[in-house]
Specification:
The chain has 202 residues and is an alpha/beta fold. The protein has 6 helices and 8 strands; from the N terminus they run βαβαβαββαβββαα. A hairpin with a 5-residue loop joins strand 6 and strand 7. The termini are close together. The protein binds 2'-deoxyinosine 5'-triphosphate and magnesium ion (MG).
Length: 202
Amino acid sequence: MRKFTGDQLVMASHNKGKLREIAALLAPFGIKVSSAADHGLDEPEETESTFAGNARIKAHYAAKATGLPALSDDSGISVDALDGAPGVYTADWAETPNGRDFAMAMEKTWNLLEAKNAPFPRTAAFNCTLCLAWPDGHDELFVGKVDGQVVWPMRGEHGFGYDPIFVPNGFDITFGEMDPAKKHEMSHRADAFAKLVAGCFD
Ligand SMILES: O=c1nc[nH]c2c1ncn2[C@H]1C[C@H](O)[C@@H](COP(=O)(O)OP(=O)(O)OP(=O)(O)O)O1
Ligand SMILES: [Mg+2]
């Protein structure tokens, strides 16, 4: 596995919630972190049908465009009773002509479960694939996951995306209600990040 030896990294994401969380995870390493927007990059189309495929598109695009190592995150929530949906299409479910509407996407998720009369607990997992790519085309991938259940109604003001309807196993609060520092200890993103640190940062 290739080690990260530089002191600068581009976060190949346009999601403010993710950027905040990954900046917190990277903070102890003394790396200068910039975002795709800082470099004036647009969002590449996520045309693959896997988290890994889309993570690679985003990281390679940013690494080539900036000449710096780039870290991307492709993530989503997979609901068991919906055969893994929305999964890779989690962000797409929130898309509207006026931007993303996650309240609508969460309602759609819950309504589909209701329509199926899905049994409780309505188990689900958040998945995260991180891709660290170098300008020469090399990359390393790391996969993380956290199991839990989808609940209703939405609860909590922290986090982003689908956090208000996801209760991780072992807790009775949603990610939206959880202290951000706690989420950073145990989320799908934290899980993948720990593997990145073990593989590339030691
Ligand atoms: O911790 C999370 N808490 C709540 N929701 C989450 C989380 N992690 C991913 N999600 C949801 C929302 C996000 O919009 C979608 C990922 O879609 P995904 O394409 O990977 O990210 P994105 O388009 O928002 O930003 P970008 O591609 O620029 O990194 O899954
Ligand atoms: Mg995206």
